[in-house]
Structures are given as structure tokens and as C-alpha cells.
Amino acid sequence: MHSASKPMEPGSLYDALEVLASRQPNAIALLAPEGGALDFSRLLSLVDAVQAELRRAGIQSDHRIVLALPTGLEMTVFTLAVTCSAITMPLELGVSERESVELLQEAGVAAVIVAPGSEVSLAQAARNLEIPILRMSLAGLTPCARQEWRPPSPSAIALLMRTSGSTAQAKLVPITHQQLVARADKSRRLLDLRASDRCLNLMPLYYLHGINSGLLGPLLAGGSVICPNNVTEHVFIDCLQRLRPTWYTAGTTHQLNILSWIENRSVVHGLRFARSGSAPLPVKALLALESHLGVPVVESLSSTETGTITSNPPNWRRKPGSVGVTPDDDIALMDEQGRRFLRPGQRGELLVRGPLVVAGYEGSHEMTADRFRDGWYHTGDLAEIDQDGYVWLHGRMDDVINRGGEKISPLEVERRLLEHPTIQRALVFA
């Protein structure tokens, strides 16, 4: 597979932003649809200003900070800044107060950042636990020159993500700086991202899809990112026409909404491709999107534990229904008994290895031992790799139905149902 260039050297997120601010200080980094843009120089100064505020508040580089901010430009800047200064734990604002208390206790959170004047359940939970609440906004920051402080080492934890993607039980996943940078770089190579590219990020930053594919991938390639406060028909069309992104990334639900918004209208845009992830996109919806947009729609496969594993390349061969290929020697298939590796065309569990993969789950030795073995992360995905290296998913191994010895995948039943012209959505479970 063609890749844009060789992998970049691993370092901290701050190191990467500092290089970009030095190399292209006046290039646009972040934009808000409602107005406002930050170049790389200004972005780095805001990162420094947040770092100074955090140190004044007693926050050190190994402290865990929850961001309870609404989606948009401010959340994006604070995500970058806190990650460069401490350990960021992004959480959805809609979690209940009871669940918030459990999350804050479980993760050993040192402070919660909220917007001035806002009241969210996470803030009330922090009060109940006597965890400091820091009310911060971009408008309240005092620009400052970089202090004499040492950015986190590449091996330091940058993000603490909560996921239950591969099992029913929620887990805490620590992701280091070098893993974050390596993941962003793999996205750059998979999608052939360039400094001239501009991404419309339709995913919230409490999902790794939003952080890795929508923010860090395009940003660390030297490009720019549009950070909308919400995703509506008006916002999407306005961004396409006025801010001229060259690509966007979104989950399946947004993709289906976008299809309904554009299928009966002509939209002027500058897209060169669209990316879909987080869940399988029905093939007929993918083909319809390609037809209406006039550009490739590429599906990818990611996980919190690994970052982006594979993708259909926008400038190369695409196979609708497949989650694509990898430019690296980092995937394999193993039989369901976990005893031997499989050849192309055989079906088994998808395994991932390499510098993008985390070391394990925090505080869960049993699940870590089960999923991370002999240098491989066992995804729990039932898959097949064809002769060209493209990965085809056949559902979760735990979901496969055994009917009289015949193995039936709910995902394959869904796909067959969705081939019917009158069926728009389908959900099949064991």
C-alpha cells in the first residue's frame, strides 16, 4: 500500500505542536464555524497559558484532569493544552451525577475543568468528593511566554480513556504521548494527509475517534481542523460551503443523517474524501454518499486500545464493505482457540501489535492478561484478511450464534437485511 511518507519520530504531543508552531507559525490550526481561528503560534501560546494556570492551581504533570466542557473550539484547545500539561480524562457532559461520582473516584481525578457559569453533573459530583473545580475559558487566559518547564516525556501517560468496546465491563485505558503521536501519524499515512488539508471533525472529543482521527491526525500533519459546537444540517452545509474542508470524519449515525441532508440537493464543496468510523456503515449508504458527494467515502477500523488499525485509502483501491488495509506489519489473524496464526482467506480473531497499542488496562490485571498476550492485542473481532491485505469484519466473537454447529454472525445478517431496498436500519443480536 502507498503511504505518504515514513513514520515520524515519536515524541510528546507538546514537542509535535512546538515543531509545527516553529515551522508554520501563521498557518491556521483550528477554526470555529461561528467565527474565530487560531494559527499554530497562537495555539501554542494558549497551551502555554493553560499550563501556567494549571501550575498556579497546584496541578502537576501526573495529575488526572477531567474536562467538562461543551463541544467546540474551547474544548479542543483545552484538550490539547491539558494533555500537554497533565493527564486528560475526557468525559461526556450527559453522564449522571451518580455515575460521575463513580468515575471520578475510580480514576483518582485531581481536578475538574468546567466553563465559567456552567453547572454540569460532573461539577456537582466533584463538589461531593471535594475535588477542586477549575473554571476556565479561553477569554480568561493571560497569554504568556513559555515558562521554564519540561514537557512530559514520550512514555508519560497523556490520555485516560474510558471504554467498554471489547467487553461489557467498562475499562480505563492509559495512552502515552508516544502512542498518541504514533496514532496520529498512522492516520496521516493511511489517509495521505497534508498541510493543505482541512478536516471537519464531527465527532466529540470524549471519543477517541474525535481526538485521534478528527483532531490529532490532521493537526499533526500540519493541516487545520474545524471544531463545530454541534452537528446539524445547517452547520454541516455551512461548513462545507464557507470553510471549505477537504475531508470530514463522522460516525455511522451522522453519515446517515448527512445522506438524508444532501440526497435531494446540490451541495458545493471542496472535499476530496469522507471518512467513516466507530461502527459499520451499510454498503448501500456508503455508495449513495459517494454518489451524492462525488468523492470517496472510506471506512476505517479503530479501537481505544490501538488507535486506527486499518482504513480504505482515499487515493488508492477501495473495497466497500471492508475496513481497509494497514501500511505496517501490525495485524494478524488467529484461530478461535488462540493456538495458531491463519492465512489470508481464513476467518479468525483479529490481532494488533506495534507502537500504537497500549500496555493494558488500568487496575484490571485479569482483563489485561486476557487481551494482551505475547506482544499482541486480541481485539475480539471475528475477521478475514483477503489476498490484497484488506480486512473484512464478521462481528464480535462473543456475539456469534451457534445453531446446531453452524456459526451465524449477527453482523452478516444485518448486512443481508440492509441489502433490501425498503429496509433502512437493522439491528441483529444473539
Describe this structure in words.
- With 430 residues, the protein is α/β, with parallel strands linked by helices.
- It has twelve helices and 21 strands.
- Strands 2-1-10-9-11-12-13-14 form an eight-stranded mixed sheet, sandwiched between helices.
- β12, α10 and β13 (297-303) form a beta-alpha-beta unit.
- α1 (13-23) packs antiparallel against α2, α2 (40-56) packs across α3 (73-85) and α9 (252-262) packs across α10.
- The longest helix is centred in the N-terminal third of the chain and has 17 residues, at 40-56.
Distance linking N and C termini:
36 Å
Low-confidence stretches: none
- Global outline: globular
What Rg do the Cα atoms give? 21 Å
**H/I helix tally:** 12
- Helix/strand-derived category reads alpha/beta
Total number of beta strands: 21
Strand order within the widest sheet? 2-1-10-9-11-12-13-14
- Proportion of beta-strand residues: 15-25%
Summarize the structure.
With 430 residues, the protein is α/β, with parallel strands linked by helices.
In terms of topology, how is this protein built?
Layout: H1 13-23, E1 28-31, E2 37-39, H2 40-56, E3 64-68, H3 73-85, E4 87-90, H4 97-107, E5 111-114, H5 121-128, E6 133-135, E7 157-163, E8 171-176, H6 177-191, E9 198-201, H7 208-220, E10 224-226, H8 233-243, E11 247-251, H9 252-262, E12 273-277, H10 283-293, E13 297-303, E14 307-311, E15 331-334, E16 347-352, H11 365-371, E17 372-373, E18 376-385, E19 391-396, E20 401-403, E21 406-408, H12 410-418
Parallel strand pairs: 1-10, 3-4, 3-5, 5-6, 9-10, 9-11, 11-12, 12-13
Antiparallel strand pairs: 1-2, 7-8, 13-14, 15-16, 16-18, 17-18, 18-19, 20-21
Helix pairs in contact: 1-2, 2-3, 4-5, 6-7, 9-10
